[in-house]
Known about the structure:
Layout: E1 13-18, E2 23-28, H1 36-67, H2 71-84, H3 91-124, H4 130-159, H5 166-185, H6 189-210, H7 218-233, H8 238-256, H9 267-286
Antiparallel strand pairs: 1-2
Helix pairs in contact: 1-2, 1-3, 2-3, 3-4, 4-5, 5-6, 5-7, 6-7, 7-8, 7-9, 8-9
Amino acid sequence: MQEINKINSNISIKLESLNINNKREIELSKDIVCTDSQKNDISLEIGVLNNQELFFKNMFLAKLCLNLENFEDSLRYVDDMAKLKESEFSIEERELFVNSYKSFISQKRSAWRSIYKKENKFVEEKNKYSNIISEIKTKFEEIIFKANEKLIYIINTYIFPKIKSIDGKTFFLKVKADHYRYMAEISIGAELKSYRQNSYKFYKEAFSSSLMLNPLNTIRLGVALNYSVFFFEVLSNTMQSIMIATSSLNEALKELKMYDEESLQDEKLKDALDIIKLIKDNVHHWAKGDLVQENE
């Protein structure tokens, strides 16, 4: 390494932050002499700081938009979080990411169900506005498809390659399966078959991965809940739904016996107990063919 010349005392280093264009400009006086290695170190350090600042800014804005129910803007900020994050999402970060998408998509799914029922009624009654209702339904379908496909793209491209933990892997496999299922719900023909196959593939992988987690882990229980719902609602396989649900219930109840009354008051355990109740309720309703509940 070449020896660095003596640095003049009047060196000035100016860092100008341009938030809009995500740039940092370094101005070094001509009295400074740095090796190429040092220049690279300076640039790298500034780049890392910039990514961190932008990440937490986007995280703050995503939370704010979510609280204000401005779901569309929340998606934009969590997408940027995924692109900026250089390591695996923390539990808080991944929940923020998924909740932003689920809030937006759940709102559209609910609207679609309402329009779908109205469309069927209008068609039966030969209402002159049935075509308008059909057009509105199609627009909602396009929004739902676009949001789900973007979520899966972001996970595949920016999130999944950085995952190292079993719970993180299981969590996002379930998310992908859920969102393929949402697309299957509003599809027909070849698209329905494709989305249904992908949903089954990722639920199966998530379920297999979840077995490495504690039976009372909320991710494991959530996978079992939604996987069983998938078999009941999408594949119309009640027997398999009950098998998956009861197997998970038995494992969870066996694990619960190891906890005392005080431990049962733990918040994380309460979340697990809530999911266990949903699974129990679903098994009860399946025998009657009622609608079931999923882990949103």
